[in-house]
Amino acid sequence: MTWGRPTVAYDQWWAELSPFLDDRALEAYVATDPTVLPDIAASIDMSAAPATLAPETGSGHVVVDVPSAAGVFGVQMTWSSDPETPQRRAGWLVDRIYFPDSPRE
User: What angle do CA 27, 5, 80 make, to 5 degrees?
Assistant: First the structure.
């Protein structure tokens, strides 16, 4: 889990998170202060409530609902196979993170 780790310094947090983000998310989250994010890694119990595909999953993208003590986070991902971005892996890249109780588009 690379998102909610409030005790990690920004440079380390961003270096570990950014390879999983698409261009839109890179732009949206570059100024995020990781010290104010909830520590969701410590509160996820996948054996009790596994992550599931959300109803808004569609062609070319998925939304995964991840339960935590802070509520259900949604992680929207799109498929990428762009060879021009070697700093990121081909495959599913995060393009949006939905906080609990936030509207989803």
Answer: 40
